[in-house]
Amino acid sequence: xxxxxxxxxxxxxxxxAFAGAGFPHVWIKNADLxxxxxxxxxxxxxxxxxxxxxxxxxxxxxxxxxxxEEINAAGGIKGSKIVPIVEDPAxxxxxxxxxxxxxxxxxxxxxxxxxxxxASRKAVLPVFERQNNLYWYPTLYEGRxxxxxxxxxxxxxxxxxxxxxxWLINKFGKKFYLIGSNYIYPKEENNYCKKLLEKHGGEVAxxxxxxxxxxEFSSVINKIRATQPNVIFSTVVGDSVxxxxxxxxxxxxxxxxxxxASLTTSENEVAAMGGDAAAGHFTSAPYFxxxxxxxxxxxxxxxxxxxxxxxxxxxxxxxxxxxxxLFRQAVEKLATSDLTPPNIRDAVKGQETIAPQGKVRIEPxxxxxxxxxxxxxxxxxxxxxxxxxxxxxxxxxxxxxxPGQVCTDKGLVVEKx
Amino acid sequence: xxxxxxxxxTGLSIGSILLLVAMGLSIIYGSMGIINLAHGEFVMLxxxxxxxxxxxxxxxxxxxxxxxxxxxAAFGWVIERYVLSLLNNRPLDTILATWGVGIMxxxxxxxxxxxxxxxxxxxxxxxxxMDVFGQSVSSYRVFLFVVAMALFAAxxxxxxxxxxxxKLRAIIQDRSVAASFGINAKRVYALTFAYGAGLAxxxxxxxxxxxxxxxxxxxxxVVDAFMVVVLGGVQSLAGTVASxxxxxxxxxxxxxxxxxxxxxxxxxxxxxxxxxxxxEGLFTARVRA
Lengths: 417, 289
Prior knowledge:
The complex is a heterodimer.
Chain A: H1 2-21, H2 24-34, E1 40-46, H3 54-73, E2 81-87, H4 93-106, E3 111-114, H5 118-131, E4 135-137, E5 150-152, H6 157-161, H7 164-172, E6 175-181, H8 184-199, E7 203-210, H9 218-227, E8 231-235, H10 239-250, E9 260-262, H11 267-273, H12 275-278, E10 282-285, H13 294-307, H14 315-332, H15 341-348, E11 352-355, E12 358-362, E13 369-370, E14 374-378, E15 384-389, E16 405-408, E17 411-414
Chain B: H1 2-32, H2 39-57, H3 61-84, H4 91-113, E1 129-132, E2 135-138, H5 139-161, H6 163-173, H7 175-180, H8 185-207, H9 218-232, H10 237-257, H11 260-277
């Protein structure tokens, strides 16, 4: 009997390994590229293809590979092909760190594109700082970080909230119910939101955090009914977003009177919860799939052609896409012999490119990105309608909630008050 | 007062979802003594079945409930027949085996339909809210409560008023004596496991309009289900019902007064303390060793 148990275990392990390798089309594609003749520029692609956040990171992997393929199809960078080395960190911070080390030390990649969660970014940070390599992080995040080894192409709190919060107060009222998942990102966003509320005469009805992966919101909805806020300010993430929206809808609450205002609900989340549950709620982000620009039309078309007509692009996958193009521009400035991560970092400072959302620029001081804030309302067809577009791009201020702290190219400077 | 009634109703609703999810486990763990770690995956299969029936066949949720029960029960039957019974249903071996089966089911779903989150449409007839004791309550949540009670009644009748139920109870009392009276223990075990799996599948389908559907959704449910069954007392179906509603009211109330993070911690702590002083759970059915 013990033999059959062992056989079973072995089979389980084999299946696990097979599943871990997953998504064969990605791998076959890479195998082709690996045989490219001439010069090669090796980069790492580090998004989870299995585990809890695979749901979203898979789309980031796809957007990154699309940009790399486009560049290679156009002749590469000064004749050299970009060779992506795809690793699957399985949604586990420890594995992220291990795979990052493999990509940087073992494969000698000159840059790595990766991470969705802050936890995974924090896990790989020591690797990149010790090896003086370069990590490209596409996700909106809570700010309050100032590394010389990370290029941040997602929004920081000031870029999502500076316009959004006053706009919400004007349109719906000053009473905000803050709800988020229980970890660092929602807490930092809410810190900044509370500052803005104070500045613009708003008030906090309640501030509440639910466990990650939480899916029972009936008590929260009772509390919302009891406090009657004007706006539900949501930084709930993952499956919880879907549960919150669907239960809000089932409880018969009305988005016209008490909308949810989110920093995290993208086309991806809307597709997961269904347009009927999302309709009427608001999101602030630099990019929406419906945004009208020639660059975006090209991006959406290429993405659908490569990965399937039912696929959506969203504000994180857009950043994945344009950051690879920024990488290309930086490498173009360098001689082949100078191709090291610190040189790429210096070359990308102040670089501009026309991204699908508009013209973006890497801020030389803090390596974050100038972006174009937008406010949009979800529609029942699963897309957004953009209601407000910023007149000007907005400077990234990663320490906006912490007066006296500034991220500079010398590192974090704390002014004594 | 209004808020109090509202909160009691919320607790009943949370409790009915817990009961739906735990009932299948209560049968399998309680009666057969199998610690079925793949229980969450049966819930997940049910939710995906609901999604597939809707997406590919255009069937509404209510119309697909019976087929979903049958499909997931068939899965359960196959797993009992070709994995668990070959291990003679020994507890330690089956923990490992069901855990492995769970991983395989998760990855199989991931490979076949992808890892995107899915959702299931609320049945249109139940998408409004209705009036219960002067409170506006989501009709679908009321429906879940009614279904949970109906399934409990059906399960109780099955266990206590049918021949299969009687045979199962005989096997639980003493397997070898039951066998010597001509009861086919293997067959009864397979049927019981299939029934438990089918119930889990139904639970998955029923909660899917309120929650999200993803390949790893089962993990949370299996923990909840074990808490309910352990607190209620193994082998006691009525205990499962009582403990589901106790846990529902308790976590709902603490979540309202404090928040969900605190509720989760306190509820877990309360169970640990209770098990320390009453290892057999709230209710016990007397069984000959």
